[in-house]
Design a protein that fits this description.
The chain has about 625 residues and is of the alpha/beta class. About 35% of the residues lie in helices and about 20% in strands. The chain is built from 18 helices and 19 strands. The chain has helices at about 1-10, 15-20, 30-35, 55-80, 180-190, 240, 245-250, 265-270, 270-275, 275-300, 340-345, 385-405, 410-420, 435-445, 455-470, 520-550, 560-570, 580-605, and strands at about 95, 110-115, 140-150, 155-160, 170-175, 195-205, 215-230, 305, 310, 325, 330-335, 350-360, 370-380, 430-435, 475-480, 490-495, 495-500, 500-505, 510-515. The strands form five sheets. It has a five-stranded mixed beta barrel with strand order 3-4-5-7-6. A four-stranded mixed β-sheet has the order 14-15-18-19. The longest helix is centred in the C-terminal third of the chain and has 30 residues, at about 520-550. It starts with a helix and ends in a 13-residue tail after the last helix.
Length: about 625
Amino acid sequence: MRQSMALLLALAARPARALIPRLHHIPRAAVARHMSDAPVNLVVDPETGEEMSKSALKKLQKQRKIDAKKAAKKQKAAEAAPAVVEDTGPPLVAAQLPFSIEAPIDDQPRFGDMDVCRSQAPSSDVPSTIKALQAGENAWVRCRVANVRSTGRAVFLVLRSLDDAAETLQACYFKDKADPRSNEALKFLERLTCESIVDCRGTVAEATVETCSRGDVELQLNSCKVVTRAPATLPFLVEDASRSEAEIAESQSTERPFASVSQEARLDYRWLELRTPASAATLKLQAAVCRLYRNAMDARGFVEIHSPKLIAGESESGAGVFTTDYFGETACLAQSPQLYKQLAVAGDLGGVYEVGPVFRAENSNTRRHLCEFTGLDFEVPIVSHYSEAISIGHGVFKAIFEGLEEECSDLLTSVRAQFPSSKPVISEEPVVLHFDDALQLLRDAGVAPEDQDDLSGADELRLGEIVKEKHGVDFFVVDRYPSSIRPFYTMLDPSDSSRSNSYDFFLRGQEICSGAQRVHDPALLRDQLRARAASLAHRARRRYRRYRLVEAPAPSTRHPTRASLRRREGPRSRRRGPLGLAQELHAGLRARRAAARGLRVWLGARRLPLPRARQH
């Protein structure tokens, strides 16, 4: 023992780091006990029992400082936090609520899905519209959820009006630190699905919102009840279906391109597509056009009539007809109310008009051919010239276009946001071009060939551009069309029988209305009917001969006669060919019979003796 103490005293004056490895045979407890007065203090790792390095010692000291700061901060926060009061009231969110439009009281849940509306109780209360909201009031709105956005401590909803797809409002709900139940309300709002119908109540506050139509206010929610919950997955988003083609095309070069909605999807889910602002506004504009048309015609003393749509025969020979069974007989869907309009005028009702459906069996995929549309028709007895009807039509169209711009500017804005267009330019007096003059304008522009006697769709569009450059208007009239391309009952021009007293209204090169002076004299109508039938027969014979000559030329240099062709090829030769004589004559006979039926209706007679066509 005395030797050990002497050894320790001798080593006390030397560096401890150099001596410790050599003293491994000395008990560590003895070294720690007898070196308490040494100039160097040893720091031992409590886990391994070994001396710690300088870097390890610095890390340990740094960690102790961090732990001390955290503990002080935690203690300070605990001292500053208010005392937590346990909430013993009812929850804010309920899994199922009874259907009610009454405002919830304090002891009732304010968030949840309501039961199905079964007309449980009548009420005179109605929700407010988005347009009528004023800052500072407590309001109740019933809207669709257009978008949901959450930030963790707040939820923002974009609400879309149920009667105006262009009207949107922002609703918000913030976390309440004093009420832990607000977390449940936040989670409920986060789980709302788009296109769900909700009843929202709260305070209208002033705000600046750039993503909604009401950019000056927002609704701070106090209650939100789901009236009808939409499925989480929809065929497409209303937001995607509301974008214009230019906006979609521009986004394709970005990192987040917009999705496009096909026409098939829009038609298959028409109920969803109608929620887009443009589609909803289109239907409202259609109703406005009918209302403005009625107002304009009523102001001019016209009488509205309602003609039958299920009739016994064709009402217009120039268009296809849909047929259906009528108690064992064949009935037709009305192609036009023209015969009944003439009957009403002959009955001394004066000018008449109609707004009704029109059906035509036109198997064409163009904007000019529709199987069903709503027609705006009018018939007026003229005093001396058909230009009187042109003046009436121009005034009515002008009243409609100007009324739309003045009364429906918000609807036009919604449509033009997706389908760009501009306000049409209409003159005070109608701009009328004769057909020959219109054709000459196209020829001067190098568009129409010299032998052309009709206008194609491309020609009409180009004519609209020329008229806009020359006259500065989008709306014009072309009259005096060739009689060969107009129905037989159209009055011929007294100065040139190859032209007719007919006209078409054009808007930017698109035909939107057609009319003519009808033959009102029975004898003259018979003469024009015979002339038209003879012309059809003559063209049929020429086509027949041309077809046979090409198919089986005669060995002689003389052209074969019709009789020789019949003897050579047999009696069934007339049935051959894409446009054989028998087929063409049969079509002409059907047109004559339809015209005869129409003439009988016009004269108000049961039977009218007409010369029968001689069948060839």
